[in-house]
């Protein structure tokens, strides 16, 4: 619901007497979706200070820190483990096994470091644990004997049609007190996300003087409490570019690519910014809003070859992640995704993408199932229309970073926008089987189980009927 659908009758009567113009005006007001009337406390988001508990350095000389994992192959049988040692390289070995007391396997990784202006990183280790069993809990340990640190993760079930799986969806997190609330809410969500789809903009270190890369380290320590135990699937945002010619730092994505690894080669990609993975019953395509995507570019060529490979009899759910949204009705970043939409939207409709998650706009918004692909410059058909083959677009850039909420919205609410609200939160995309998935959006002000927005998704290939859009507020 929203104010648009609940105008008092007296207003209707008043407008009715003003004939055509007023009637048209009211019709426009009635068309859009709903804008939440939730009243939040207005407060700016403040980064947690360097001595915060969440940034604490683990005890012990050269102890591994910033431990994080992500899927390491195309099917879910490998995991990439990454961590940092600050004082000296130490060991790049991961010991792992199915029992906490018997880490019978081990694999040696590599380490690297980088400089950024006057900052020098620690030793960034990464290691691929391959040929794992599906749906199995593994314990793993990084670091040398005295300062070894132990964690665990569960591999996904084997890829298949009716495999339930629960994804968390987080974007634009940063490292403020609100970021910490978002992560806590995600971790305490009774739905228990098994893997995070992260839609870009990680640390916001570039908001500091000289892009102070110490804030990449603090972000790594802050998020370890989730990412050491479950994979986060990475998307590149604008805050990962770190292009700073004034500091003689002209290699885009330098800190990000040194710190966060993705299995891009496994999907035939040539750069880590666009790639795909399969996980349980989902096929996830990650695109880069900040890499070339025009015709003939590597990303464009890759996507053209990639989409026909998606076998919906194997992975019924087709999910796309990108940072900059195509359908956004906030003033913030309005139309920034337009050029990529023009390039790729017809493909998304042709291949029946179920859902597109984006970040960038620091708020939440869910679109109707619409497309805008009829336009050919001369036919004037430039308005989004309902389209059962089109994805639903969800903006979830509301992780809580230092730049604060995007509160200013386009009025009246456009038809393509089903629900929008500027509050911090996270999402859960809960796949039940080949036909049904449930999406919930959780705002930080509510208790852990409250869904501020909730929708059933019907699979576009297996059950392409109109969804009932059930908004719980
Ligand atoms: C880098 O330079 C800035 C000033 O530009 C200074 O404040 C900071 O302490 C320096 N950092 C290091 C690690 O030298
Ligand atoms: C961050 O959240 C955790 C978990 O709720 C809490 O223990 C910790 O004190 C918080 N830290 C800060 C700086 O807010
Ligand atoms: C960048 O490099 C140039 C040439 O080496 C040098 O003159 C300049 O001082 C450098 N700028 C910074 C900010 O380090
Ligand atoms: C544009 O589309 C219209 C119909 O929608 C069609 O009649 C026209 O020929 C198209 N123009 C071009 C240049 O393709
Ligand atoms: C798929 O899941 C939905 C929601 O849980 C359920 O209603 C439906 O019966 C399931 N379909 C099958 C074939 O089990
Ligand atoms: Fe962004």
Automatic annotation (TrEMBL):
<dbReference type="InterPro" id="IPR008963">
    <property type="entry name" value="Purple_acid_Pase-like_N"/>
</dbReference>
<protein>
    <recommendedName>
        <fullName>Purple acid phosphatase</fullName>
        <ecNumber>3.1.3.2</ecNumber>
    </recommendedName>
</protein>
<dbReference type="Pfam" id="PF00149">
    <property type="entry name" value="Metallophos"/>
</dbReference>
<feature type="domain" description="Purple acid phosphatase C-terminal">
    <location>
        <begin position="390"/>
        <end position="449"/>
    </location>
</feature>
<keyword id="KW-0472">Membrane</keyword>
<comment type="similarity">
    <text>Belongs to the metallophosphoesterase superfamily. Purple acid phosphatase family.</text>
</comment>
<keyword id="KW-0732">Signal</keyword>
<dbReference type="InterPro" id="IPR004843">
    <property type="entry name" value="Calcineurin-like_PHP"/>
</dbReference>
<dbReference type="InterPro" id="IPR015914">
    <property type="entry name" value="PAPs_N"/>
</dbReference>
<dbReference type="InterPro" id="IPR039331">
    <property type="entry name" value="PAPs-like"/>
</dbReference>
<keyword id="KW-0812">Transmembrane</keyword>
<dbReference type="InterPro" id="IPR029052">
    <property type="entry name" value="Metallo-depent_PP-like"/>
</dbReference>
<keyword id="KW-0862">Zinc</keyword>
<keyword id="KW-0325">Glycoprotein</keyword>
<dbReference type="InterPro" id="IPR041792">
    <property type="entry name" value="MPP_PAP"/>
</dbReference>
<dbReference type="InterPro" id="IPR025733">
    <property type="entry name" value="PAPs_C"/>
</dbReference>
<dbReference type="Pfam" id="PF16656">
    <property type="entry name" value="Pur_ac_phosph_N"/>
</dbReference>
<keyword id="KW-0378">Hydrolase</keyword>
<keyword id="KW-1133">Transmembrane helix</keyword>
<feature type="domain" description="Calcineurin-like phosphoesterase">
    <location>
        <begin position="166"/>
        <end position="364"/>
    </location>
</feature>
<dbReference type="GO" id="GO:0046872">
    <property type="term" value="F:metal ion binding"/>
</dbReference>
<keyword id="KW-0408">Iron</keyword>
<keyword id="KW-0479">Metal-binding</keyword>
<feature type="domain" description="Purple acid phosphatase N-terminal">
    <location>
        <begin position="64"/>
        <end position="155"/>
    </location>
</feature>
<dbReference type="Pfam" id="PF14008">
    <property type="entry name" value="Metallophos_C"/>
</dbReference>
<dbReference type="GO" id="GO:0003993">
    <property type="term" value="F:acid phosphatase activity"/>
</dbReference>
<feature type="transmembrane region" description="Helical">
    <location>
        <begin position="12"/>
        <end position="29"/>
    </location>
</feature>
């Amino acid at each position: 619901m929203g104010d648009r659908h609940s105008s008092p009758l007296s207003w209707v009567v008043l407008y009715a007497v003003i004939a055509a113009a007023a009637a048209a005006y009211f019709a426009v007001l009635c068309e859009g979706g709903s804008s939440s009337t939730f009243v939040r406390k207005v407060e700016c988001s403040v980064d947690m200070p360097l001595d915060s508990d969440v940034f604490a350095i683990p005890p012990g000389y050269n102890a591994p820190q910033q431990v994080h994992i992500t899927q390491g192959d195309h099917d879910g049988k490998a995991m990439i483990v990454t961590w940092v040692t600050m004082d000296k390289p130490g060991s790049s070995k991961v010991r792992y096994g199915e029992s906490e007391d018997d880490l019978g396997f081990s694999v040696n990784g590599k380490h690297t470091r980088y400089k950024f202006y006057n900052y020098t990183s620690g030793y960034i280790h990464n290691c691929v644990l391959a040929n794992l069993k599906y749906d199995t809990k593994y314990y793993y340990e990084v670091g040398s004997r005295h300062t070894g640190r132990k964690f665990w993760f569960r591999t996904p079930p084997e890829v298949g049609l009716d495999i339930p799986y629960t994804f968390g969806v987080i974007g634009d997190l940063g490292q403020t007190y609100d970021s910490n609330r978002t992560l806590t809410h995600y971790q305490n969500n009774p739905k228990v996300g098994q893997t995070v789809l992260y839609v870009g903009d990680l640390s916001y270190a570039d908001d500091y003087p000289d892009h102070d890369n110490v804030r990449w380290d603090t972000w790594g320590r802050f998020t370890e409490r989730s990412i050491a135990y479950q994979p986060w699937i990475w998307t590149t945002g604008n805050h990962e570019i770190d292009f700073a010619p004034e500091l003689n730092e002209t290699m885009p994505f330098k800190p990000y690519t040194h710190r966060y690894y993705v299995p891009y080669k496994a999907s035939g990609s040539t750069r880590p910014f666009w790639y795909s993975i399969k996980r349980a019953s989902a096929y996830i395509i990650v695109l880069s809003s900040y890499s070339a995507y025009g015709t003939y570019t590597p990303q464009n060529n890759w996507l053209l070859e990639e989409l026909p490979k998606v076998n919906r009899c194997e992975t019924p759910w087709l999910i796309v992640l990108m940072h900059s949204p195509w359908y956004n009705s906030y003033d913030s970043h309005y139309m920034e995704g337009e050029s990529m939409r023009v390039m790729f939207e017809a493909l998304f409709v042709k291949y029946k993408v179920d859902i597109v998650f984006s970040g960038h706009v620091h708020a939440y918004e869910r679109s109707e199932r619409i497309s805008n692909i009829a336009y050919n410059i001369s036919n004037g058909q430039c308005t989004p229309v309902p389209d059962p083959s089109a994805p639903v677009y969800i903006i979830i850039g509301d992780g809580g970073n230092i730049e604060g909420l995007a509160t200013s919205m386009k009025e009246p609410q456009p038809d393509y926008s089903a629900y929008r609200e500027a509050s911090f939160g996270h999402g859960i995309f809960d796949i039940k089987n080949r036909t049904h998935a449930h999406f919930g959006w959780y705002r930080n002000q509510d208790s852990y189980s409250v869904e501020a927005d909730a929708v059933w998704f019907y699979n576009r290939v297996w059950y392409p009927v109109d969804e009932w859009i059930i908004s719980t507020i």
